[in-house]
Amino acid sequence: MRRKGRTSFQLVSWSVEFSTRPQRDEISLHRSTSSKLVLPGFSLIETVLALGILATALMAVIGLLPHALDTSRIADRRAAESLIIANVRAQCTSTLPEGELRFDPSGSPLPDVAHDFAFTAVVTSDTSLALPGETTGSLRAARVELRDRSRTWTRTQTFTLPP
Hints:
Layout: E1 2-3, E2 6-7, E3 13-20, E4 25-32, H1 44-91, E5 100-103, E6 109-110, E7 119-126, E8 141-148, E9 154-160
Antiparallel strand pairs: 1-2, 3-4, 5-6, 5-7, 7-8, 8-9
């Protein structure tokens, strides 16, 4: 409709209401006389609070990551230790190996000339072990000293050998 060079528009707005029925959800549109469209949603305060809770939870999870990585590293090293000890024990059934034995990070043996080793094991004879009631060492035993190449970590374990 035109009056004196101006154009006027009649504004009609719609509001959306959700009605819940036992069988289905329907969206019904109702005509409103106001110029605002009313839609369901979250307010700015609700959104900021939700983001704050999410950020706090994420910071707690991120804070646990260094501890989880250290635990994983320790578990890997202990698994390699047990494989190395089992390998050395198998080699010691007849004679004690001489010199340094070299192992990779997973505990598998490497040749003596390998330069990319992660662990070394030095095996020595131990005659100080004795049965209860004896004064001298009567057991044939071996002492294994494990060393980690990348750290200053050393672990010693002694075990008896078959006669």
